[in-house]
Amino acid sequence: MEVKELIIQAIKAKENAYVPYSNFKVGSAILTEDGTMYTGCNIENASLGATNCAERTAIFKAVSEGHKVIKAIVIVGNVNSHTFPCGICRQVINEFAAEDIKIIVAKNESEYLVKTMEEILPGAFSKEDLGK
Ligand code: THU
Hints:
Blueprint: H1 3-14, E1 27-32, E2 37-41, H2 54-64, E3 70-76, H3 87-96, E4 97-106, E5 112-115, H4 117-120
Parallel strand pairs: 3-4
Antiparallel strand pairs: 1-2, 1-3, 4-5
This protein binds tetrahydrodeoxyuridine.
């Protein structure tokens, strides 16, 4: 699947964001090892702390369906600037990232940055640290 198609799906998913508190919609789309795609949006909560980011929604959907390796992830938030994954999401992406994962931070289908895992979470604490 092309990067542009993944971005289009993330933009679509963003429409389902539940954001009564921040009013800041985020969408995500991920490509798993066998080419299956999952999307997600941010889902806020009155407690604020129970909010789930778009990236984690997409990743948890994939893992719960048996897909544990992510080849690419798109994040679409603010259309005027690039919305990078939060710290917790970076850690969760790292847990399931393929070695050459592409982290695509998009404004739209034609304006996007492609980052590596090492660039967004250098020196990550990983399952290897636990001998796994
Ligand atoms: N948000 C995401 O969905 N992904 C990120 O990586 C950054 C933050 C959401 C959480 C919250 O609903 C809103 O953006 C404002 O923080």
